[in-house]
Amino acid sequence: MNTQTQVKIFGLVSLVSLALSATLGAQQLLQQPAEPATTAHFKTLSVERLNVVEADGTVKLLLTNTERFPVTEEVNGRILNEDRKKRAGMLFFNEEGMEAGGFIFDGSRNEQGHSAGMSLTFDKYDGDQVMQLLTVDEQRGERRIVRSGLAFNDRPELETQQQVRDIQRELAQIEDRQLRRQKYMEYQQQGYLGGATRVLLGKTSQANNGLFLFASDGSPRAMFYVDEQDEVQLQFFNAAGEITHSWTAGAATEQAPQ
After folding, report:
1. pTM of the entire predicted model
2. Is the model more confident about 257 or about 129?
3. Partners of 135 in the beta sheet?
4. Element (H, E) at 170
5. What percent of the chain has pLDDT over 90?
């Protein structure tokens, strides 16, 4: 066999081998599952509830209509709040899957007129609301009440979300109202339940617009506001809720408790 013949045979074998390799490669490519799309574009997306999750499945943000709002169902392995009213909005969760705040809203007509409101809250770690942006609009017959504000709250030192749920279930089993309140006060004194607003900046139901400061038990201690007659008011209170000092329209006065 001469050299030219050997070259031709070698070339033919190479072409056949290359063709077989290409065929096998194409078959393997076709058999491999396609990677899921990482991006998508929707002009309109209609859902009743949307859970935004981490790669491990932990829910970090939950957007929901009223009906799908989680009350008794578990989110991240936890029941959030069995006594909470269902409202449309969203809930926030931290890296451990605990609820960290949320935004809710509602509004409808009723026999008195209407009732509407919105609330944006931020929770302390493994606890309840420490900051809240709130507005409430109610029609009660001929009277319309609108109040709104930014509130900063103290929460019990030993409060945890799971313990609060357990205590609420325990209290719900106590039929005697006085005994139930007594048990609640015991837990409050122990630092497991309670909480109080300490600072409120906003408008009250009496149409007073200003800054309101409260003691650790929630009782008023100081108010600086403009009343519904556009008069500037500055008031100080003692532990019994009595006005001790006040300032109105440029005249400072001192009042003895009654």
Report:
1. 0.79
2. 129
3. 118, 148
4. helix 161-172
5. 78
* Secondary structure (H, E, C), 33-97: CCCCCCCCCCCCCCCCEEEEECCCCCEEEEEECCCCCCCCCEECCEECCCCCCCCEEEEEECCCC
Q: For residue 40, give every residue at least 6 positions away whose Cβ sits within 8 Å of its Cβ, in sequence order, or none.
A: none
Rounded to whole angstroms, how far apart are CA atoms 80 and 121? Answer: 15
pLDDT band at 27 (very low <50, low <70, confident <90, very high): low
Compute φ and ψ for 42, nearest 5 degrees.
-125, 135
Cβ pair 141, 110 in contact under 8 A: no
Q: Where are the domains of the chain?
A: 44-153, 156-194, 196-258
Among 223, 214, 221, 224, smallest CA distance to 238 is for 221
Alpha-carbon separation of residue 1 from 5, 9, 10, 13, 233 (angstroms):
6, 11, 13, 16, 116
> Residue written as tokens 């309109």?
44
Dist. CA 186–CA 189, nearest whole Å? 5
**Identity at 36, one-letter amino acid code:** P
Lowest mean pLDDT among 22-26, 159-163, 195-199, 207-211: 22-26
**CA torsion angle 66 67 69 74 (round to 10):** 180
Contact (Cβ atoms closer than 8 angstroms) between residue 135 and residue 120: no
3-state SS, residue 30: helix
Q: Under 8 Å CB-to-CB from 253, ≥6 apart: which residues?
A: 245, 246, 247
